[in-house]
Specification:
- The structure is a single chain.
- The protein has a three-stranded antiparallel β-sheet with strand order 1-2-3, with no helix packed on it.
- It starts with a helix and ends with a strand.
- The chain is rod-shaped.
- It is mainly alpha-helical and 119 residues long.
- A hairpin with a 4-residue loop joins strand 2 and strand 3.
Length: 119
């Protein structure tokens, strides 16, 4: 995510070097419009795993600036990674063993998802 944002920001900065400055009384409005354009470019360039989150950002009022949107996306990406790591941890620890204390019985693990004894 960071490399995508850095590349996009570099392109915007380079593009800005070639623009002639605005010399009218609508400079602020023009700046707001440019920020919205950048936000749209950033959001539309995200992959489909962020589709729902992109939609949530687009309905915010007022719209966040690009930096705020980037921060929100990084938070979402971190959350998705944490959830993925948690699922991996749970899948590795899906077995249980129930033996009475002091029992000499053979350990027979049970799959906690299917509740079947694993041979």
């Amino acid at each position: 995510m960071a490399s995508y944002y850095i590349k996009l920001k570099a392109l915007w900065d380079e593009f800005e070097l070639y623009r002639s400055p605005i010399v009218c009384n609508q400079t602020k409005e023009h700046q707001i419009e440019k920020e919205e354009d950048k936000l749209m470019q950033f959001l539309m360039g995200l992959n489909d795993s962020f589709k729902k989150f992109r939609s949530n950002i687009l309905v915010m009022s007022p719209l966040p600036n690009v930096r705020q949107a980037y921060s929100l996306i990084v938070q979402e990406e971190t959350q998705q990674q944490m959830n993925s790591d948690d699922e991996i941890f749970q899948s590795r620890h899906q077995y249980k063993v129930d033996l009475p204390i002091g029992s000499n019985q053979k350990v027979r693990p049970v799959n906690t998802i299917t509740n079947q004894v694993i041979p």
